[in-house]
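Researcher: Please translate sequence to structure tokens.
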Amino acid sequence: MQDLLTPEEQAFRDEVRAFLAEHLTPALREAGRRCSGIFAEYPQGNDWHRVLAGRGWSVPQWPVAFGGCDWTPMQHYLFAAELAAADAPPRAPMGPGMVAPVLIAFGTPAQQQRWLPGIRDGSDYWCQGYSEPGSGSDLASLQCKARRDGDHWVIDGTKIWTTHAQFANRMFCLVRTSSAGKPQTGISFLCFDIATPGITIRPIHSLSGDHELNQVFFDNVRVPLDSLIGQENQGWTIAKYLLQHERGGAYSPSLRGRWRRVAQALDAAFSGHRAAAPEAQQLRLELADLHCQLDALQALELRTLRAQAAGAERGISPSMGKLLGTELKQALTALHVRIAGNAAVPHAPLHQAGAHALALSEDGLFAISSYLNDRAASIYAGTNEVQRNIIAAHLLAG
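Model: Translation complete:
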């Protein structure tokens, strides 16, 4: 990696490292290290977001006119890599990385002024209303409806797997506004306050014991007509645009940190245990194989970044990254559980590791928590089977 960087890129990386050394507190690093999900809990993640906002780095991917940074694709990659290496709390992407690009591309100037500043400075926190019970990956089959009534949209229905809805004050949502024609042509995209009367949030506790997910119910919920982004029944186009951003990030920076953690666990597990040498050797071979896969993924991402910098389209690279990145993540967490052995069995919040009466291993708790959480990685943001279809269709079309 070092040999691939220009002097300007090395200077940028050093600037980011110096900033992290000064502003990433031990408490924030601990929150990042203990994060076994996709992103940190709201308090720590948003605290870190506000620190970055103070430096002008909270939304670097946005256009400069909206408060972003005029960085190259490689600078964005280096920024992500340094944050992951320093154990910075991963921030929720729903506001900065998902709805914001939609608002910039499809929103009116008034909508951009209403919502983008709050995303940038961390005063607003968004959740996503896409999935519905019974719909699976068939997003076009959604049944949550919205109808016009005077100067309002009236929403009835439900959304599920709504991450961090319990913390959010804003929501972006796909709703059915027409049943005529193909299912894709009757969908609209709305943004609104989650405190609107008629919205009920019910928690869903995952296998790992975390409360990240929720089901959200809409009962005669009235939101203003200007909650509509783009045109009525244009939501399918907007939804696909958003999904490109949801899937399009680089995976190798965070996976590199995860690999190092598994390697450290392996060293600690077999330190001084000569009798276990054959088992340790087998695990080291498997870890080395995953390292090779990680190097290959990173090479693919860097090649894509260089092509983007030269003006190439993203094409199927978001689908390829999502497919390879999530499967590698699952393989790493599965190996971590095998290394942790019996220490991976207990089921308790990570912050209880040190104080628990049974002296639980924090690494063992992290191993099982991240393993269970990552089982969903090949499902969310479009299943990996869907990504394979996208890739195959693109390649077969020539």
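Researcher: Any highlights?
Model: The chain is about 50% helix and 15% strand.
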